[in-house]
Specification:
There is one protein chain. The protein is mostly helical. It has helices at residues 9-14, 18-37, 42-71, 75-106, 109-130, 137-162, 166-188, 195-236, 242-276. Helix 3 (42-71) crosses helix 5 (109-130) and helix 4 (75-106) crosses helix 8 (195-236). It is globular and about 60 Å long. The chain starts with 8 loop residues before the first helix and ends with a helix.
């Protein structure tokens, strides 16, 4: 009841950039505790502890956004209000991702292996599924989009069942992306680089994955928010009430928006990122 109480949804909406540092703090404390107490299982424990710290914020936000559904009738204004919550979630995600990246880059090799072994295997499995000999960009796009749809479905299921459950999928994705960026940095400085070289390569690695990563994660947050709002509304309202119907309409709009954003992210990953990198 200490670090998770540092900020609340109302304060986060006013200063969303603060959530970047909250994300760094949550994940860094989780990394240190997992390596100290649960070193053999640090890959999963670090994610679990980060999620544990994020749960109060996530649940409070879901409740706040569900209340907005009941008070605001204009869908355009409502989507704008949801956008404020989504902005600080993106900052939090970036903080968690950068934190995992820096831990990957600067920890000794043995600790890096303990902390990111499962994430490394996940990246290898994803690359095996998506890439292949003679694959064209259209096929690559379809595979990326279908894989992203699968992740979105997991976010919807977790958020609907647990309310705040999508944060687990998103934190796990942050750790995987942090691992990918960290591995990119380490691979490119293996021959030895000065401080400026580290900074340049780290920046390049972050840019490489965030060009399509930010809209992709935004889509997952939008989807998770839509399912989480419904989950809370089911507990609080009669299925046949007018209020519940308004919540369903708003959630449907959010889900449709998440699919559009996810499509754009897949197009960027398949056609834009390969050109730039």
């Amino acid at each position: 009841m200490v670090i998770e109480s540092l900020i609340n949804p109302f304060k986060a909406e006013r200063k969303p950039w603060e959530m970047f540092f909250i994300g760094v703090l949550y994940s860094s404390v989780a990394v240190l505790l997992s390596l100290w107490v649960f070193k053999p299982h640090a890959s999963l424990v670090a994610v679990f502890l980060t999620v544990t710290a994020c749960v109060p914020m996530m649940y409070g936000t879901m409740k706040m956004e569900e209340e907005k559904d009941l008070k605001i009738a204009d869908e355009k204004i409502l989507l704008k209000e949801h956008g404020r919550a989504l902005s600080f979630f993106i900052f939090m995600f970036l903080g968690i991702t950068i934190s995992f990246t820096l831990w990957y880059v600067f920890l000794p090799a043995d600790l890096t292996h303990s902390l990111f072994s499962i994430q490394t295997k996940t990246i290898s499995d994803i690359n095996t599924q998506i890439t292949g000999q003679g694959i064209n960009q259209v096929t690559l796009f379809s595979k990326i989009f279908l894989n992203n749809i699968k992740v979105l479905i997991f976010c919807l299921i977790f958020a609907f069942i647990y309310g705040f459950g999508a944060i687990f999928i998103l934190t796990w994705n942050a750790s995987v992306i942090g691992t990918a960026i960290g591995n990119f940095v380490r691979t490119n400085v293996a021959s030895g680089a000065h401080a400026v070289g580290y900074f340049e390569i780290t920046s390049l690695g972050i840019l490489r994955y965030m060009i399509h990563g930010i809209p992709e994660i935004l889509a997952y947050f939008i989807g998770g928010l839509s399912a989480g709002i419904v989950s809370i509304a089911i507990i609080k309202h009669d299925f046949r009430s007018e209020k519940f119907q308004r919540v369903l309409l708003d959630s449907a709009d959010l889900l449709l928006l998440s699919l559009v954003v996810l499509l754009a992210a897949a197009l960027m990953e398949a056609f834009v990122t390969p050109i730039l990198f």
